[in-house]
Amino acid sequence: MKWLLVNPRPEEFSVLGKYEKVMVPFIPMGLAYLAASLEERGAEVGIYDGFASPGLSLVEKAALFQPQVVGISCLTPTADALKTMAPALRMAVPGVKIVLGNIHATLFARELMEQDLADYVIHGEGEKAIQALDDCLEGRIGPEDVPGLSYLNNGSVCTNPPGSPVQDLDALPLPAWHLFDLDRYQTPPLFAFKKRLLPILASRGCPFRCYFCAQNVMSPTLRKRNMVKVADEIETVHNKTGVDLFWFCDAIFPLTRQDAKIFCREMTSRGLHKKIQWITETRVDLVDRPLLRMLKQAGLSMVLFGLESGDQEVLARIKPGVDLDAGKQAVAAARAEGVTTLGLFMLGLPGETRQTMEKTIAFARGISLDFAKFNRAVPYPGSRFFDEIYRGRDMPPWELFSSNYEPRNGEGIVYTPRGVTDQELIRLHKRAFFRFYVRPGLIARHLAGGRISPWNMLRGGGVVVRSFFEENVQNLFKSPK
Question: 392: pLDDT confidence band, cut at 50, 70 and 90?
């Protein structure tokens, strides 16, 4: 079959918000794995990434490519866009089959199919199922033989039992990076250097179940790759593409100290630490200076810490077992070892007040982070957060389920805690970026260390300052004591 795999970009600018001006596209690794699995079966595959295809719409791409099947990655903020996307695709390519996958499609398959937005939905991890679906569309098996597939049978939606998650992740073919224009995928403008950036995966699943996280929907069990194979992949991809910056997309990497030792040994023994830099995310309670020193020597450039909140009571509710002191110590250890740090925070969690959110902003400013990213808390489907907030309630439009959504025409946002207004949370969100980044000491540190180029500092700073004043000018002199 001839497949077009799609990472859709809604036309509505408000889904990404004003910060889109300083964002860069991040290459969709899931599509790259699916494409490789289809090519392994002999299928012809094309890719359309709406975030990295300037001047070319999805409908134009489909009309040019003329696929028999269009497979669309369906995340919650982009789900509403299917209402215009699906009919346009059917008109541009008569007879085309539309297949949806990813977390939103997995959770809401029946609803999507009853609205005629898809012919098939693949639930959960898709590599094996998409190969079986290709066999089905070629007439070799029936739809009832495709594990984890929803399909129509005499007008009714049928859903097959799920298949087993892939246990041997190293048996999957390497992502099909040759189908992408890698020059479109550069490092974020926060960095002074301009490099192509590729993701890599060393595990699927997570041993923790945080209140706000929904990734267990797609990867309910934890599976790890062989660390030698991970180093093999980095070496192979580097040699083929010249890319020398990789981002581990695992929930946590490395998961264990033993994994770290094996991976670092492979990177250093092959001399890859002299050629390759890499970025990872981990929990603050899983690192210390000796571990970070070992990772740094193997090429670690930046570590992302899920710090979440600067209020201990809020943190204890959403991420049990982690305290503020652990966050301070992890950031201090990384800085001592010369590893750049980025802290991830949320504002507007259940039970929060303006005071707890101000504590988060102050905490981020006070622990010597290099960078910080503040998200408005969003109850994504599949999380305990969503189940508690929306159980038995009508759903708002799916496009609202975005941390950066910009309300229009007086509408609200998807969630604010009791006692806080929508506009107040939006102002605090923008205030957080302003207060963190617009500091002479931090600006001087970044310029001296070469972490941000002067041009990107002006570009990003302009967005932060302008966004802050648009929402906060009336309250500029009313800051709490």
Answer: confident
pLDDT tens per residue across span 130-162: 999 999 999 999 999 999 999 999 989 999 999
In a domain, 72, yes or no: yes
> For the chain, what is the largest distance between any 2 Cα atoms, rounded to a whole number of angstroms?
70
Count Cβ atoms below 10 Å from residue 55 Cβ, excluding itself: 5
Average pLDDT value for the chain: 90
Place of tokens 């403008």: 189
Q: Are residues 132 and 213 in the same domain?
A: no
Residues forming a β-bridge with 71:
5, 99
Q: Do 470 and 362 belong together in one domain?
A: yes
Q: Are 90 and 197 part of one and the same domain?
A: no
CB-based contacts of 458, cutoff 8 Å, min separation 6: none
Where residue 419 falls (left for φ over 0; alpha for ψ -120 to 50; beta otherwise) is left
Decide: residue 164, CB within 10 A, 0-12 exposed, 13-18 middle, 19+ buried: exposed
Q: Is the pLDDT of residue 203 over 50?
A: yes
Radius of gyration of the chain (CA): 23
Element (H, E) at 135: helix 127-137
Please report how the helices 29-40 and 127-137 are oriented relative to each other, as an axis angle in degrees rounded to 10.
Answer: 50
How many independent structural domains does the chain possess?
2
The answer to whether 47 and 73 have CB atoms below 8 angstroms apart is: no
Provide the residue range defining the domain that includes 29: 2-159
Q: Which of 159, 194, 224 is the last residue of a domain?
A: 159
Model's pTM, two decimal places?
0.92
More confident site: 49 or 481 = 49
Eight-class DSSP state of 143: G
CA distance 279 to 277: 7
Per-residue pLDDT band for 478 (boundaries 50, 70, 90) equals very low
The C-alpha atoms of residue 152 and residue 70 are separated, in whole angstroms, by 17
Amino acid at 35: A
Alpha carbon dihedral 91, 42, 73, 390, in 10-degree steps, equals 110
Kindly list the strands in the beta sheet with 371-376, ordered across the sheet, starting from the edge strand earlier in the chain: 198-200, 245-248, 277-282, 300-308, 340-347, 371-376
Q: Are 39 and 176 in contact (CB under 8 A)?
A: yes
pLDDT at 452: 66
| 64 vs 456: which has the higher pLDDT | 64
Nearest alpha-carbon partner for 45 in 178, 216, 236: 178
pLDDT of the residue at 435:
94
Reply yes or no on whether the pLDDT at 268 is more than 90: yes
